[in-house]
Amino acid sequence: MSNSSALKGAAVARDAVDLVLEQWARARPDLDPSPMSVLGRLSRATRLAERELKSLFSEFGLERGEFDVLATLRRSGSPDGLTAGMLARSSMVTSGAVTNRLDRLVAKGYVTRDLDPANRRTVIVALTPAGRDLIDRAVAAHLDNERRILAALDPHQQDELAAILRSLLLSLGDEADAPRSPGDP
Prior knowledge:
Number of strands: 3
Largest sheet: 3 strands, antiparallel
Structural class: mainly alpha
CATH architecture: Orthogonal Bundle
Radius of gyration: 21 Å
CATH class: Mainly Alpha
Helix content: 55-70%
Shape: elongated
Order of helices and strands: HHHHEHHEEHH
Oligomer: single chain
Low-confidence stretches: 1-6, 179-185
CATH superfamily: Winged helix-like DNA-binding domain superfamily/Winged helix DNA-binding domain
Strand order of the largest sheet: 1-3-2
């Protein structure tokens, strides 16, 4: 029996999006609000997950963007660090946003920012030992937190959802053309 067949025969728990869909069905029966069933849930799930992630990052004295910079440096595999430009491209934020994140991380002692001896116009950003230790602890806790967030889904469901979301992202053009930094999957 398929998942959809099993769901049709069983009572399915309702969420806030169900109420929105019912309200639209009454208010505008001429419209099909079914896209809201996906995007509304995706939006709500993202918002709730982000709240959980923010809480975890704060336990390590980090903001989301700071975690992203440290994680990018750690997973890059380059002990010498990355250029500020590579960090900006991998995080898909403006160079100004990366500069602000780097300023905070330098002040906290988690990264260094030095001129590249081969090209004095290029800034190289590298983890300090304290930054490496912090991101190693934070990423382990982050993965545990993500497992907890996804615990309602069994591993097969998680794989299916990941594949579906990958297809959606690729169809939107977001990931197919995204710049990659060294070490990105």
